[in-house]
Amino acid sequence: MEVIHLSVECFPVAKVGGLADVVGALPKYQRKIGIDARVVIPWFDRPFVKAHLFEIVGTGSFSQGSEELHYEVHKEKNDTLGFPLFLIKIPGKLDREEVYCYPDEAEQWIAFQHAFLHWIQNSGIHPSIIHCHDHHVGLIAFLLQHGTEFRSLVDIKTIFTVHNGQYQGWMNWNKGILLPPFDTWKWGLLDWDGLINPLATAIKCSDAYTTVSEGYLNELFIEANGLQGLFNAESAKGYGIVNGIDTAYWNPQIDTLIEKKYNKITVQKGKEENKQILCEKYNLSSDLPLLSFIGRFAKEKGADLLSEIFVKLFSVRENISIFILGSGDEEIQNKLKELELKFEGKLSLFFGYDEILAHQVYAASDMLLMPSRVEPCGLNQLYALKYGTIPIVRAIGGLRDTVVDVADGGYGFVFDKLNADDAVEAILRSLDIYSNLKIWKGIRKKAMHLDFSWDRSAQKYVELYNQLLK
Q: What PANTHER family does UniProt report for this protein, alphabetically (predicted)?
């Protein structure tokens, strides 16, 4: 069975969020169980591309509105990532450094999808499944079924994974002229509330759609940024499959990015040594429990509550160190800067994203805070558990699916309501138990024995593929 994963992110080539981690790991684990899985993404002018050898395996041209676009398909020669990787380069469209935030994103993603279908049709490539990830490639299923250029591809099955239903790729109908020719009688499949909506189109047209956790699938039936009615109508072809983590990369026993490696037996000493190094560098006390936050400064992540949470926490408990790694909303960032000055020596910040530092923070921290408003799956809590760092999470989406409260015999601390008081209460519960080393070691041991690798999830996707191909 040949499966092509189509996405605009793939770690470590181009990463903005969890989408990249999934696309960079799932195909590798599928190949372990006999699936010929490949990845196709846009070409980006980034370090990975410059550091690896590529060969051109396809070229072509097509019209997009009044433009004639030429594309090249570059294949990474050595399959460094554990699977064949293909990059589509289009001068002026797909040849840039950043993944997002360009004013012509709609034109970029239309061109990417058109070039991909043009290439596989003209190259005789005929996968069993095209697995599309997020709205950027949400038009693929529609174009396979109703695009007049791609008749020979109509029997290919499509699966669409919703990584975040809040972002849908809306575009005005004046962009319709940029699409490859299609059966105009089917225009309604592109439309939602008077706009072209690639996410809605994917849900309507794909043979199946998945979400990155069972909890998030159920939440989309209730609230999906206007598409909840559509998700309900198409519920028969919806599946929730929780993400996994790449344990060849996220594993404290073999992690070359952390200062001191450790395993389930040596975790106490290992975490103490990593904490000491991190705290010394960022002016924190390593003698205190270390609570961290890693992520985007966005309301979606509950980052707008961080300042209030930490002010309330320090008002009742001062024996804690806090480290924050992230970037995003400027207002949130400025409030955190003020807090760092106010609580000097107790709270430290690193603005931006640093992959090496992220690994070191997981290895050094005792707890990880995730007060999310929306969390389709969440990977940070899974990384934390692997490193013996206990997650403190809001019961939402994939966090609800993957973290069980210690009060229920679990290995984390869960709060229900989205407010600072409930978050602080959960943190205080964790600090009370942390003070009892024997109990804390038991919780940490339970966390590190959990299996959230991609092995199980990759198998579930393969079962779904087989079901569709029957």
A: ALPHA AMYLASE DOMAIN-CONTAINING PROTEIN (PTHR45825:SF11), GRANULE-BOUND STARCH SYNTHASE 1, CHLOROPLASTIC/AMYLOPLASTIC (PTHR45825)
